[in-house]
Structure formats: structure tokens, C-alpha cells
Amino acid sequence: MAYTIAFFGSKPYDEASFNEKNSGYGFELRYYKGHLNLNNVILTQGVDAVCIFVNDTADAEVIRQLAANGVKLLALRCAGYNNVDLNGITVVRVPASSPYAVAEYTVALMLSLNRKIPRATWRTRDGNFSLHGLLGFDMYGKTAGIIGTGKIAKKLIAILRGFGMYPDYNFAREHQVVYTTLDELYRSSDIISLHCPLTEQTRYLINDYSISKMKDGVMIINTGRGQLIHTNALIEGLKNKKIGSAGLDVYEEESEYFYEDRSDKIIDDDTLARLLSFNNVIVTSHQAFFTREALANIAATTLMNIKDFMEHKKLENEVRL
Ligand code: NAI
């Protein structure tokens, strides 16, 4: 009997990339649109592996029920695992779908905010060709503060070097990346970009206190995880002009909204609505990873992880406590 994999939170583009790669594996793939949670975990009865994404819930109770239903493996088709309780079932992930995708998207957010390209586009569509309010700054010579220097951040730093930006002020002298304290990073950075995982140590790293240490007019970019930023503190910082702009591909309460078309409903999350009301904030729907190459890598790595598990091989991408 074919090994059965149940996908939760699945979208047509997931189905397309996984169906294509699965031709080399022959697994039975079942796709469910809803996020995995306690209400639908019953769908996993008799399933061998469950595959989830960033906004599915796999807390202790869901994991307990997965195990009780006979599920042997939880395969994350993403890198972050902050949404998963790591006790009770084997968990694998995709550590690098495409660091290039996220790094390039991070730069796209920086440039869009700095040069106000979305606003300029709305204007010209409406016949308004004025430059008033669209003034930006040269990226050249500015300081970028990168929090977390893993796979994505390293690609980002390589791109920013092309602009003549420096990960911190010593870089100009030394021509290499220099690690600095968080306080110094807050003090000296024109742009701060978050690339660390969400953990107990990093939750709400960007809060009232850390914002108070930043340069006036700082740009904050978050393509990491929503809860790295205390959103109400960010909003206060934007209102009192301490923060000059923010590019957010993730939001701490994103799971209700992101990846869904909710355009026929009102937004009942006041914090999200407030964020969307700023003309110096760009919110996107957790799409930094979303390139053709990344989707192909996600499907290839996930199916390989599952095959390795099935064949009792060493699990390269196992997530452990
Ligand atoms: P990685 O594991 O290669 O790098 C993470 C880095 O953060 C490591 O160098 C680690 O030492 C550092 N770190 C851990 N705790 C820290 C702390 N308390 N303070 C400062 N640094 C700390 O991960 P990668 O691939 O670079 O991804 C980073 C994060 O980006 C992921 O954890 C995930 O949450 C997010 N991500 C977002 C995507 C999107 O579509 N928006 C797509 C892929 C990842």
C-alpha cells in the first residue's frame, strides 16, 4: 500500500509542485485547504505522514492526537518550526527552500519603502505625476543592522554590499562583516532587518525599549516571523516618527489572514488595520519564500525527508529539541 501523506493549509501551487515531484516517489498525497488544528486532526487517521506549513498549529494536543491516529512523521514544508511542539513525534523540515528568494525579497521591501514605489504607482495610475512626499535616500554608504546571520542573512549581506551598504560601521574599514552588540546595532543602523528564528529569546525582540535605542527614522524590515516584533510598539514608533518605515512580510497574528483572499470581508483585527493605514508601511502576506525555485526545492526536500524516514535512513533535516 502506498505511503500516505496528508497536506494541510495546501494551495494550488503546493499541489502542482508536490504532484510533479511525487512522480518519482509514488506516495499517496491528500490535500486539505484548512490549517491543521484540533478540529480537523481527525482527518489524519490512517495517514503515515502529515505535511504542514507556517500557519498550521501543531501544539502538544494536536501532536498527541496525530500520534494517536497513527501518524508517524510530521513534515514541515518550511524552515521555521516555532509553531510545533517537538515532543512525541518525529519532525522534519526544509531548512533552506531558497535563501536567495527571501534575501532578494527583503531588498525589494527596502527599495519599495525607501523609494516609495507602491505609492508612486498608485499616483501615476490616477494621473498624479507629482514627486511630493516620494523623497528617498541613497542606500550607498548607509548602515544595515542584520539580526541573525544565517543562510538568508548571508545572501542579504552579499546583495547589500553591492549597494555599498555596510552591515555595521566597522565594515567600511575592515571590508568584512563585523558582529556587534544589539545595542550598538540599534544605535547605528539606518535599516534593521530581522533574520533570526522565533524562539523564547527572540520573541518581541523589537519592543518599546529596543525601538527607543534606534536611530530616528530607522527602517525596520521583518521577513522572519511576526512575533519578533511587538506590533503595538511598532505602531507607536511609527506614530511618533521614531520609525521612518516598516516592511513586514510577517505579522504576529497573521494566521487568520495571510494566504487567504479576505477582500469581501472587513478586517476585524484593529492592529492589522492600523498597520495597513500607514503610507510608510508595506505589509505582504508571508511571500518572501515564494519563487518557482523555492517551491521546487520545498517539494523535493520534503518528499526526500519522508522517504528517508520511511526507509529508516539518517534524517538530515530532523528537528530536535
Ligand atoms: P538559519 O538557521 O540559517 O539562520 C538563523 C540565524 O539566527 C542563525 O545564524 C542563528 O545563530 C541566529 N540566531 C538564533 N537565535 C538568535 C538570537 N537570539 N539573536 C540573534 N541571532 C540568533 O535560518 P535562515 O534560513 O536564515 O532563516 C531565518 C528565519 O527566516 C527562519 O527562522 C524563518 O523564521 C524565516 N523565514 C521566513 C521566510 C518567509 O517567507 N518570510 C522563508 C524562510 C525563512
In short:
With 321 residues, this protein is of the alpha/beta class.
Pick out the low-confidence regions.
none
Indicate the overall shape: globular
Give the overall pLDDT as a whole number. 94
Q: Which sequence of SSEs, written as H and E, runs from N to C? A: EHEEHEEHHEHHHEHEHEHEH
The set of bound ligands, ions and cofactors reads: 1,4-dihydronicotinamide adenine dinucleotide
Helix content: 25-40%
Describe the structure in your own words:
With 321 residues, the chain is α/β, with parallel strands linked by helices. Helices cover 35% and strands 13% of the residues. It is built from eleven helices and ten strands. It has a five-stranded parallel sheet, with helices on one face. A five-stranded parallel sheet has the order 6-7-8-9-10, with helices on both faces. Helix 1 crosses helix 11 (292-310) and helix 3 crosses helix 5 (151-163). The protein binds 1,4-dihydronicotinamide adenine dinucleotide.
Keywords:
321 residues; alpha/beta; five-stranded parallel β-sheet; 11 helices; 10 strands; 35% helix; 13% strand; globular; binds 1,4-dihydronicotinamide adenine dinucleotide
Topology:
Blueprint: E1 4-7, H1 12-22, E2 28-31, E3 49-52, H2 60-68, E4 73-76, E5 90-92, H3 99-115, H4 117-125, E6 144-147, H5 151-163, H6 171-174, H7 182-188, E7 191-194, H8 208-212, E8 218-222, H9 231-239, E9 243-248, H10 270-277, E10 281-283, H11 292-310
Parallel strand pairs: 1-2, 1-3, 3-4, 4-5, 6-7, 7-8, 8-9, 9-10
Helix pairs in contact: 1-11, 3-5
1,4-dihydronicotinamide adenine dinucleotide (NAI) binds next to helix 3 and helix 5.
